[in-house]
Amino acid sequence: MLAKAALAQFEDVDVVRHFWPMVRSSQHLERLLPELKANPGLVLFTLVNPETRRRLEDACSKLGLPAVPILDRITEALEQALGQEARGRPGQQHRMDKAYFDRVEAIQFTIAHDDGIGWENWEEADIVLAGVSRSSKTPTSIYLANRGYKVANIPLVVESPPPKKLFELRNPLVVGLTTAPERLVQIRRNRLLTLNEQTQTAYVDNEKVKEELTFARRMFADNGWPVIDVTRRSIEETAAAVIRLCSQRKNASEGEFEGVKAI
């Protein structure tokens, strides 16, 4: 992720990336060194075990490859801020603790309740995302699930009203997702192209799309659901906005939203 963010600062670069995850021992490192030699380049690593990282640094030095320990500056800053030394144990972020199993459960729930499926169990969700087709409901749901939230999502279709259960929910935070009609038409056209579908339908008709979005916005307003405009947002930004709404709801003294909050 850090490499991707840094590469975004450069124009017209064609980079081939190789990824070797979960390197926790010198034995594992020895097995991948031939691959590193066959694919030379800048080496970014997050190894924390002193012996393993020394072996990697020695190997990179012999191969003439620059090696950058990208966690060092962050770890040093955290040590100063927290007043304690880092433990230096490999794989700490992959521990199978309660948080890990909660994420697994959230992902399973979210996959099982995608696209309006399993509405009978929506009360068990933490979040329910509602919006017209191709308004980024599914990828946002999966991202939130990876953060430990149980998420269901429902497509809003003018000709097919959602189940009444949607309007009776008490536990989940229901969030409406909307977008600009021009952007939505573009996304839907691209979707049809990937399916080799050339027929022009109401699915990509400008006026019909506007009607869909109006229908969805009216539903959001009628039910007092907070609304997020995803037109210029990445999935990560949309998910962050949803999480912020969850925190606000949790901290609110009354525990409810009043009116529509557009973000």
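That was protein one. Protein two is written in the same sequence-then-structure order:
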Amino acid sequence: MTNIPTDDGPWLVVGLGNPGPGYAGNRHNAGFMVLDLLAERTGSRLKSHRSRADVAEVRLVGVRAVLARPLSFMNLSGGPVGAARTFYKVDPARIIVLHDELDIPFGAVRLKRGGGDNGHNGLRSISSTLGTRDYLRVRIGIGRPPGRMDPADFVLRDFGTTERRELPLLVENAADAVEMLIKDGLEPTQNRFHALL
């Protein structure tokens, strides 16, 4: 079983983050970083859309896809994602959400379908709006905060100096994971990327 939906509707690939230049380098914006790389790979530019997201209609690994970057703050991501899903008539099984993950070591990429939000307000908002948790997640490892730092403060800080040197590879791997997920399905992609790090 490949976990690839059988209809030929588009995929919706959503990068999570907070809008505005002040947040651009934050750990919480890892999803935006991966989405931007996917847009760059397809030679497309994200443009404002009535779903309250910047979107680009592209072909990823030869398959129709919509890249979407919500213009809302992270904890209100569900509104733009739900609107884009309705506009483009996307089955939730074909939605891929790219997001930072505290419980995964920095540099690792993990994938899953469904599950809880693990305290991630962006995922909570999306699950609530879609009425299902049964969408795909590409989880970008940012690691745990040092010492007793509040996780909410940690995710809203920029990546550290050492991390920034390794960040391009992490973003590349996550973008590769999205492409493989669409092409080959969940299980083969998990087998490849979960073996790394």
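The chain is about 35% helix and 20% strand. Keep this in mind for the problem set.
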